Sequence to fold (180 residues):
Amino acid sequence: MGNRKHSRIDQFEPELKETVDEMIKSGSTYREIVEYIRNHGISISLSAVGSYAKNLMTTVNDLRMTQETFRAITEETERYPDLDTTEGILRITSARLLNAVERMPESEIGSKDMEMLIRHSSALARAVAAKKRADVQNRETIELGKEQFQTALFDLMAQENPELYRAFRKFIKENQEKLS
Fold:
């Protein structure tokens, strides 16, 4: 999206540029757009309008795809509340990558595009593995923190209120099966 080329139309007054953009999006012919621009005292070629329109529509379509991707990620994370955003992004990206490979004609299997897909697949697999490692490390850190807090709490309880500590230990011992 950030690679869109700049043209003379990008330098127009904002109101004129917005009107031209809307004319392009609504399907006006390039001749109609050239005529509209010329009526505003600016000379421009049909090919300049065509190039601008092609680049604009590429940008608009890229934006739509990005919005669709984020909508899909949002739906995925809403459907599975325990799923974090990173996992949702990885799932959507994996699905799109697999779809691209499935749609690729046999004749293109050995092409540069296929090599690029393989590199992206490899990068995606590494990202998934890194995410899983991070999740495991986070769970281990949380468990360690819980254990340290519990130990500190019990030590403090034993020192400050030994009767409460004994009653609590008795309660835990009596209800061990229910707590497991």
